[in-house]
Design a protein that fits this description.
The protein has a two-stranded antiparallel ribbon. The protein starts with a helix and ends with a helix. The chain is globular. 73% of the residues lie in helices and 5% in strands. It has 307 residues and is mainly α. Helix 7 runs antiparallel to helix 13.
């Protein structure tokens, strides 16, 4: 595939959007990859990283191996993700703490439009497709109702395992890698490591993520190759079920004290904006939801024009 520098800049911007989404516990970078039209190429490129690649590197040289793994695409994408995570970590943290309703409203609109977009990719609906969609929705919904672990364990081995599990969720549309980190009690240590430039912890999470990514991408690539419609149906279900997590208005049932001695929400449930305890910011929330929804429609139109 021949691409210009402009194409790679666009891929980098898509990476930045994926990175921004993955910083929010409840939104999946995989969803952004899907709606921006790079999901299957991403899976295919990652799954080409294997021991066979070392043979190619040894026999035919770096240039052939780089082409085989779609290196320019992956490099552009991961540079975008890295820039986004490093530059936006503090801003996202600030918004989560100070303007959660508005932040969640924007992402709620974004994810809602993603459901329609991904469901439209299913070429044949039958009873099995509907069944796996419903099962996917129930599973994702159940995951959003789980209580996070109280422990904020930050041993290097634990961070490695957390990175392995979270990356699998990160490339699944609908299941948020950041939310999996929250459930494991690893979200705060990871965010702190990025902000404090704790390279040991970042390396442990990164190594776990690489191993998880290389393994899980092969599974997903195989599913897309053999059961594309059913895989899309499950992913659509995942995104529907995940809406509970990103519903803007929450009621805190229990609180806990974090490692800095600050009280933070522990267990929350979704409530109506009209029974929300606090400023529901209803008008602004609706506007931002529409902006998020419109952004996906715009991306879809641009992708369709390109085709």
């Amino acid at each position: 595939m021949s691409r210009s520098i402009k194409d790679y800049l666009v891929i980098g911007l898509k990476g930045m959007a994926m990175g921004a989404a993955d910083l929010v516990p409840g939104v999946s970078g995989g969803t952004i990859a899907f709606i921006s039209g790079i999901y299957e190429e991403l899976l295919g490129s990652i799954s080409n990283v294997n021991f066979g690649l070392l043979k190619t590197l040894k026999k035919e040289g770096f240039k052939v191996a780089w082409k085989e793994v779609n290196g320019n695409f992956l490099l552009s994408l991961f540079i975008g993700i890295f820039i986004s995570i490093v530059s936006l970590a503090k801003a996202i943290k600030f918004l989560l703490e100070n303007e959660p309703v508005l932040l969640w409203s924007f992402f709620f609109g974004l994810v809602l439009a993603s459901i329609i977009y991904i469901a439209k990719q299913i070429t044949k609906w039958n009873s099995i497709a509907i069944l796996v969609l419903v099962l996917g929705a129930f599973l994702a919904y159940y995951i959003t109702t789980l209580n996070p672990l109280v422990s904020e364990n930050s041993s290097l081995f634990f961070m490695f395992i957390a990175g392995t599990i979270a990356i699998c969720a990160m490339i699944l549309p609908g299941i948020s890698g950041a939310f999996i980190l929250v459930l494991l009690g690893a979200y705060k240590p990871v965010l702190a490591a990025v902000n404090d430039r704790d390279y040991k912890t970042i390396a442990a999470v990164g190594l776990g993520a690489i191993i998880g990514l290389l393994t899980f991408s092969k599974v997903l690539k195989w599913l897309f190759a053999h059961y594309k419609n059913y895989t899309l149906a499950v992913l659509t279900g995942f995104i529907i079920g995940s809406l509970n997590k990103i519903w803007p208005w929450k009621e805190t049932l229990t609180w806990r004290t974090n490692s800095h001695g600050v009280e933070v929400p522990f267990n929350q449930q979704s409530v109506s904006p009209f029974s929300f305890d606090g400023d529901a910011q209803f008008t602004m929330a609706i506007i931002l939801s529409i902006v998020g929804f419109g952004l996906i429609l715009l991306m879809e139109k641009l992708a369709f024009k390109k085709q």
